[in-house]
Amino acid sequence: MKKNWPLWEVFVRSKNGLEHRHFGSLHAPDAEIALNNARDVYTRRKEGVSIWVVESKYIKASNPDDNSELFDPADDKAYRHPTFYDLPDDVEHM
Amino acid sequence: MNNQNLTHYLYGLADNALILGQRLSELCGHGPTLETDIALTNIALDLLGQTRSYYQYIANLSHENLSEDDVAFLRKEHEYRNVLLVEQPNADFAYVITRQYFFDVFHFLMLEKLQNSKDLNLKAIAQKSIKEVSYHKRFSGDWLKRLGDGTELSQEKVQNAVNDLWVFTNELFETSKADQTVLKELQIESPETFKSDYYKIISSTLEEAKLNVPEVTYFQEGGKQGIHSEHMGYILADMQYMQRTYPDMKW
Which residues on adjacent β-strands are paired with residue A9? Predict the structure, then answer.
Protein backbone atom coordinates (compact mmCIF):
# COMPACT_ATOMS: atom_id res chain seq x y z
CA MET A 1 0.00 0.00 0.00
CA LYS A 2 1.22 3.49 -0.80
CA LYS A 3 1.79 5.43 2.36
CA ASN A 4 1.19 8.96 1.14
CA TRP A 5 -1.83 10.45 -0.52
CA PRO A 6 -1.19 11.59 -4.10
CA LEU A 7 -0.30 15.20 -4.84
CA TRP A 8 -2.83 17.51 -6.53
CA GLU A 9 -2.38 20.86 -8.24
CA VAL A 10 -4.94 23.51 -7.37
CA PHE A 11 -6.19 26.15 -9.82
CA VAL A 12 -8.48 28.93 -8.64
CA ARG A 13 -10.51 31.42 -10.66
CA SER A 14 -10.51 34.51 -8.48
CA LYS A 15 -13.25 36.38 -10.35
CA ASN A 16 -15.70 35.56 -13.10
CA GLY A 17 -14.10 36.55 -16.38
CA LEU A 18 -10.59 35.75 -15.24
CA GLU A 19 -8.79 32.51 -15.97
CA HIS A 20 -8.01 29.83 -13.41
CA ARG A 21 -4.54 30.33 -11.97
CA HIS A 22 -2.23 27.91 -10.26
CA PHE A 23 -2.50 28.50 -6.50
CA GLY A 24 -0.42 25.68 -5.12
CA SER A 25 -0.56 21.99 -4.40
CA LEU A 26 -1.82 19.69 -1.68
CA HIS A 27 -2.30 16.05 -0.78
CA ALA A 28 -5.64 14.24 -0.93
CA PRO A 29 -6.79 10.63 -1.34
CA ASP A 30 -9.23 11.41 -4.19
CA ALA A 31 -10.68 14.24 -6.28
CA GLU A 32 -13.61 15.12 -4.01
CA ILE A 33 -11.40 15.43 -0.96
CA ALA A 34 -8.87 17.36 -3.02
CA LEU A 35 -11.61 19.92 -3.77
CA ASN A 36 -12.57 20.12 -0.08
CA ASN A 37 -8.92 20.50 0.91
CA ALA A 38 -8.39 23.18 -1.73
CA ARG A 39 -11.34 25.08 -0.31
CA ASP A 40 -9.94 24.81 3.20
CA VAL A 41 -6.36 25.61 2.33
CA TYR A 42 -6.75 28.22 -0.42
CA THR A 43 -10.21 29.80 -0.70
CA ARG A 44 -11.55 30.32 2.79
CA ARG A 45 -11.07 34.08 2.61
CA LYS A 46 -13.09 34.71 -0.53
CA GLU A 47 -10.13 34.16 -2.84
CA GLY A 48 -12.15 32.51 -5.55
CA VAL A 49 -15.33 31.60 -7.37
CA SER A 50 -14.21 28.32 -8.90
CA ILE A 51 -11.65 25.63 -8.14
CA TRP A 52 -10.01 23.04 -10.39
CA VAL A 53 -7.90 20.23 -9.05
CA VAL A 54 -5.82 17.83 -11.08
CA GLU A 55 -3.54 15.09 -9.93
CA SER A 56 0.01 16.30 -10.38
CA LYS A 57 1.11 13.12 -12.17
CA TYR A 58 -1.08 14.10 -15.15
CA ILE A 59 0.92 17.24 -15.78
CA LYS A 60 3.58 16.85 -18.43
CA ALA A 61 6.34 19.35 -17.73
CA SER A 62 8.99 20.58 -20.14
CA ASN A 63 12.52 19.45 -19.52
CA PRO A 64 14.91 22.26 -18.48
CA ASP A 65 17.55 20.67 -20.79
CA ASP A 66 15.32 21.60 -23.73
CA ASN A 67 15.11 25.26 -22.77
CA SER A 68 17.45 26.46 -25.49
CA GLU A 69 15.39 24.93 -28.29
CA LEU A 70 12.01 25.76 -26.73
CA PHE A 71 12.52 29.33 -25.59
CA ASP A 72 15.70 30.92 -26.92
CA PRO A 73 14.57 31.34 -30.55
CA ALA A 74 12.04 33.93 -29.34
CA ASP A 75 14.73 36.13 -27.76
CA ASP A 76 15.11 38.64 -30.60
CA LYS A 77 11.50 38.70 -31.78
CA ALA A 78 9.91 41.29 -29.51
CA TYR A 79 7.37 42.04 -32.29
CA ARG A 80 5.63 38.78 -31.41
CA HIS A 81 4.22 40.53 -28.35
CA PRO A 82 1.20 42.72 -29.08
CA THR A 83 2.87 45.65 -27.32
CA PHE A 84 2.72 48.07 -30.26
CA TYR A 85 -1.00 48.79 -29.95
CA ASP A 86 -2.78 51.33 -27.80
CA LEU A 87 -5.27 49.52 -25.59
CA PRO A 88 -8.62 51.21 -24.98
CA ASP A 89 -9.16 51.95 -21.27
CA ASP A 90 -12.24 49.72 -21.16
CA VAL A 91 -10.28 46.56 -21.84
CA GLU A 92 -9.53 45.01 -18.49
CA HIS A 93 -7.29 42.19 -17.39
CA MET A 94 -4.71 42.48 -20.18
CA MET B 1 -40.75 37.43 25.58
CA ASN B 2 -39.36 36.33 28.93
CA ASN B 3 -35.62 37.09 28.85
CA GLN B 4 -34.79 34.31 31.26
CA ASN B 5 -36.36 31.66 29.06
CA LEU B 6 -34.75 33.08 25.95
CA THR B 7 -31.32 33.18 27.60
CA HIS B 8 -31.74 29.58 28.69
CA TYR B 9 -32.67 28.58 25.14
CA LEU B 10 -29.75 30.53 23.65
CA TYR B 11 -27.30 28.77 25.96
CA GLY B 12 -28.54 25.48 24.53
CA LEU B 13 -27.59 26.66 21.04
CA ALA B 14 -24.39 28.49 21.90
CA ASP B 15 -22.80 26.02 24.28
CA ASN B 16 -22.93 23.21 21.72
CA ALA B 17 -20.96 25.35 19.29
CA LEU B 18 -18.54 26.55 21.98
CA ILE B 19 -17.65 23.16 23.40
CA LEU B 20 -17.35 21.47 20.01
CA GLY B 21 -15.27 24.42 18.81
CA GLN B 22 -13.04 24.05 21.87
CA ARG B 23 -12.68 20.30 21.29
CA LEU B 24 -11.72 20.83 17.65
CA SER B 25 -9.27 23.58 18.52
CA GLU B 26 -7.38 21.07 20.68
CA LEU B 27 -6.45 19.45 17.37
CA CYS B 28 -4.85 22.59 15.93
CA GLY B 29 -1.35 21.51 14.95
CA HIS B 30 -2.19 17.86 15.69
CA GLY B 31 -4.42 16.92 12.74
CA PRO B 32 -3.57 13.72 10.88
CA THR B 33 -2.39 15.66 7.81
CA LEU B 34 -1.72 19.32 7.13
CA GLU B 35 -4.87 19.59 5.01
CA THR B 36 -7.24 18.00 7.56
CA ASP B 37 -5.59 19.98 10.35
CA ILE B 38 -6.45 23.22 8.53
CA ALA B 39 -9.96 21.96 7.74
CA LEU B 40 -10.74 21.03 11.36
CA THR B 41 -9.34 24.31 12.63
CA ASN B 42 -11.49 26.17 10.08
CA ILE B 43 -14.56 24.38 11.44
CA ALA B 44 -13.53 25.23 15.01
CA LEU B 45 -13.24 28.90 14.04
CA ASP B 46 -16.65 28.87 12.34
CA LEU B 47 -18.21 27.40 15.46
CA LEU B 48 -16.52 29.87 17.80
CA GLY B 49 -17.71 32.70 15.54
CA GLN B 50 -21.27 31.43 15.79
CA THR B 51 -20.89 31.11 19.55
CA ARG B 52 -19.89 34.76 19.78
CA SER B 53 -23.06 35.86 17.99
CA TYR B 54 -25.22 33.97 20.48
CA TYR B 55 -23.25 35.18 23.51
CA GLN B 56 -23.36 38.79 22.35
CA TYR B 57 -27.11 38.41 22.11
CA ILE B 58 -27.25 36.91 25.62
CA ALA B 59 -25.04 39.71 26.97
CA ASN B 60 -27.40 42.29 25.43
CA LEU B 61 -30.39 40.63 27.07
CA SER B 62 -28.83 40.69 30.53
CA HIS B 63 -29.37 43.54 32.96
CA GLU B 64 -26.08 42.96 34.76
CA ASN B 65 -23.77 44.45 32.18
CA LEU B 66 -22.38 41.05 31.20
CA SER B 67 -19.87 40.71 28.38
CA GLU B 68 -19.61 37.80 25.96
CA ASP B 69 -16.40 36.78 27.76
CA ASP B 70 -18.19 36.58 31.11
CA VAL B 71 -20.77 34.34 29.53
CA ALA B 72 -18.23 32.09 27.83
CA PHE B 73 -15.59 31.82 30.52
CA LEU B 74 -17.07 32.48 33.94
CA ARG B 75 -19.93 30.02 34.25
CA LYS B 76 -19.75 26.85 36.31
CA GLU B 77 -19.93 23.41 34.78
CA HIS B 78 -23.60 22.84 35.64
CA GLU B 79 -24.53 26.12 33.95
CA TYR B 80 -23.41 24.92 30.52
CA ARG B 81 -26.22 23.46 28.44
CA ASN B 82 -24.27 21.65 25.70
CA VAL B 83 -25.15 18.08 24.81
CA LEU B 84 -22.88 15.23 25.91
CA LEU B 85 -21.98 14.42 22.28
CA VAL B 86 -19.86 17.54 21.75
CA GLU B 87 -17.74 17.04 24.87
CA GLN B 88 -16.64 13.53 23.90
CA PRO B 89 -12.86 13.30 23.47
CA ASN B 90 -10.81 13.35 20.25
CA ALA B 91 -10.01 9.65 20.68
CA ASP B 92 -8.88 9.30 17.05
CA PHE B 93 -9.73 10.71 13.62
CA ALA B 94 -12.67 8.32 13.26
CA TYR B 95 -14.19 9.65 16.50
CA VAL B 96 -13.60 13.25 15.49
CA ILE B 97 -15.32 12.72 12.14
CA THR B 98 -18.22 10.69 13.51
CA ARG B 99 -18.89 13.14 16.33
CA GLN B 100 -18.75 15.94 13.80
CA TYR B 101 -21.13 14.29 11.34
CA PHE B 102 -23.66 13.35 14.04
CA PHE B 103 -23.65 16.96 15.18
CA ASP B 104 -23.47 18.62 11.73
CA VAL B 105 -26.59 16.92 10.39
CA PHE B 106 -28.55 18.00 13.46
CA HIS B 107 -27.03 21.48 13.37
CA PHE B 108 -27.97 21.94 9.71
CA LEU B 109 -31.59 20.80 10.18
CA MET B 110 -31.90 22.96 13.29
CA LEU B 111 -30.60 26.09 11.54
CA GLU B 112 -33.01 25.49 8.65
CA LYS B 113 -35.86 25.88 11.14
CA LEU B 114 -34.20 28.75 12.96
CA GLN B 115 -34.02 30.72 9.70
CA ASN B 116 -37.80 31.07 9.85
CA SER B 117 -37.87 32.25 13.43
CA LYS B 118 -39.80 35.37 14.39
CA ASP B 119 -36.77 36.60 16.33
CA LEU B 120 -34.73 38.73 13.92
CA ASN B 121 -31.44 38.22 15.76
CA LEU B 122 -31.77 34.45 15.65
CA LYS B 123 -32.87 34.58 12.06
CA ALA B 124 -29.77 36.55 11.09
CA ILE B 125 -27.42 34.26 13.01
CA ALA B 126 -29.03 31.19 11.40
CA GLN B 127 -28.82 32.60 7.89
CA LYS B 128 -25.14 33.35 8.31
CA SER B 129 -24.27 30.07 10.06
CA ILE B 130 -26.09 27.67 7.77
CA LYS B 131 -23.67 28.26 4.89
CA GLU B 132 -20.76 27.32 7.13
CA VAL B 133 -22.53 24.31 8.59
CA SER B 134 -23.52 23.10 5.16
CA TYR B 135 -19.81 22.76 4.42
CA HIS B 136 -19.07 21.13 7.80
CA LYS B 137 -21.63 18.46 6.97
CA ARG B 138 -20.08 17.91 3.55
CA PHE B 139 -16.59 17.62 5.04
CA SER B 140 -17.52 15.19 7.81
CA GLY B 141 -19.89 13.19 5.58
CA ASP B 142 -17.27 12.79 2.84
CA TRP B 143 -14.78 11.52 5.40
CA LEU B 144 -17.22 9.20 7.11
CA LYS B 145 -17.89 7.48 3.77
CA ARG B 146 -14.19 7.17 3.02
CA LEU B 147 -13.30 5.77 6.41
CA GLY B 148 -16.21 3.33 6.35
CA ASP B 149 -15.62 2.23 2.78
CA GLY B 150 -11.84 2.40 3.15
CA THR B 151 -9.48 -0.19 4.58
CA GLU B 152 -10.36 -2.92 7.03
CA LEU B 153 -8.70 -0.94 9.81
CA SER B 154 -10.41 2.36 9.02
CA GLN B 155 -13.75 0.59 8.83
CA GLU B 156 -13.23 -1.05 12.20
CA LYS B 157 -12.21 2.23 13.81
CA VAL B 158 -15.10 4.23 12.42
CA GLN B 159 -17.63 1.51 13.23
CA ASN B 160 -16.41 1.61 16.84
CA ALA B 161 -16.83 5.37 16.89
CA VAL B 162 -20.35 5.08 15.45
CA ASN B 163 -21.29 2.47 18.04
CA ASP B 164 -19.87 4.49 20.94
CA LEU B 165 -21.27 7.87 19.94
CA TRP B 166 -24.69 6.69 18.82
CA VAL B 167 -26.02 6.76 22.41
CA PHE B 168 -25.49 10.52 22.51
CA THR B 169 -27.59 11.36 19.44
CA ASN B 170 -31.02 11.31 21.03
CA GLU B 171 -30.15 14.10 23.44
CA LEU B 172 -29.84 16.54 20.52
CA PHE B 173 -33.63 16.53 20.29
CA GLU B 174 -34.33 17.05 23.98
CA THR B 175 -36.08 20.28 24.96
CA SER B 176 -36.74 21.69 28.41
CA LYS B 177 -40.01 23.35 29.44
CA ALA B 178 -38.39 26.77 28.98
CA ASP B 179 -37.11 25.73 25.53
CA GLN B 180 -40.60 24.72 24.51
CA THR B 181 -42.03 28.06 25.59
CA VAL B 182 -39.44 29.91 23.51
CA LEU B 183 -39.94 27.66 20.48
CA LYS B 184 -43.66 28.31 20.61
CA GLU B 185 -43.40 32.05 21.06
CA LEU B 186 -40.82 32.52 18.34
CA GLN B 187 -42.58 30.06 16.03
CA ILE B 188 -39.55 27.79 15.64
CA GLU B 189 -40.34 24.18 14.82
CA SER B 190 -39.33 21.90 17.68
CA PRO B 191 -36.37 19.54 17.05
CA GLU B 192 -38.81 16.67 17.54
CA THR B 193 -40.29 17.49 14.11
CA PHE B 194 -37.08 16.67 12.24
CA LYS B 195 -35.89 13.79 14.38
CA SER B 196 -37.01 11.11 11.93
CA ASP B 197 -35.39 13.04 9.05
CA TYR B 198 -32.18 13.16 11.08
CA TYR B 199 -32.04 9.42 11.60
CA LYS B 200 -32.96 8.79 7.97
CA ILE B 201 -30.08 10.94 6.74
CA ILE B 202 -27.59 9.42 9.19
CA SER B 203 -28.68 5.87 8.38
CA SER B 204 -28.44 6.36 4.64
CA THR B 205 -24.93 7.84 4.99
CA LEU B 206 -23.88 4.93 7.21
CA GLU B 207 -25.21 2.48 4.64
CA GLU B 208 -23.35 4.27 1.86
CA ALA B 209 -20.25 4.07 4.06
CA LYS B 210 -20.84 0.31 4.43
CA LEU B 211 -21.28 0.72 8.17
CA ASN B 212 -23.90 -0.83 10.43
CA VAL B 213 -26.55 1.33 11.99
CA PRO B 214 -26.42 0.52 15.71
CA GLU B 215 -29.52 -1.05 17.15
CA VAL B 216 -29.48 0.74 20.45
CA THR B 217 -32.55 1.92 22.25
CA TYR B 218 -30.86 3.21 25.39
CA PHE B 219 -29.59 6.76 25.09
CA GLN B 220 -27.40 8.95 27.30
CA GLU B 221 -28.56 12.40 28.27
CA GLY B 222 -27.96 15.05 30.89
CA GLY B 223 -25.78 17.71 29.27
CA LYS B 224 -28.71 19.96 28.48
CA GLN B 225 -29.69 19.88 32.15
CA GLY B 226 -26.13 20.71 33.19
CA ILE B 227 -25.21 17.16 34.17
CA HIS B 228 -22.08 16.57 32.16
CA SER B 229 -19.70 13.68 31.53
CA GLU B 230 -16.36 13.40 33.30
CA HIS B 231 -14.69 15.13 30.32
CA MET B 232 -16.39 18.47 30.78
CA GLY B 233 -14.41 19.60 33.83
CA TYR B 234 -11.14 19.19 31.96
CA ILE B 235 -12.44 21.10 28.96
CA LEU B 236 -13.52 24.00 31.16
CA ALA B 237 -10.30 23.97 33.16
CA ASP B 238 -8.37 24.43 29.93
CA MET B 239 -10.78 26.94 28.45
CA GLN B 240 -11.38 29.10 31.50
CA TYR B 241 -7.84 29.15 32.83
CA MET B 242 -6.86 32.58 31.49
CA GLN B 243 -10.01 34.41 32.58
CA ARG B 244 -9.92 32.80 36.02
CA THR B 245 -6.24 33.50 36.59
CA TYR B 246 -6.23 37.01 35.13
CA PRO B 247 -9.80 38.27 35.62
CA ASP B 248 -10.99 40.72 32.97
CA MET B 249 -7.88 40.25 30.88
CA LYS B 250 -8.20 41.26 27.25
CA TRP B 251 -6.18 40.02 24.29
Answer: A25, A54
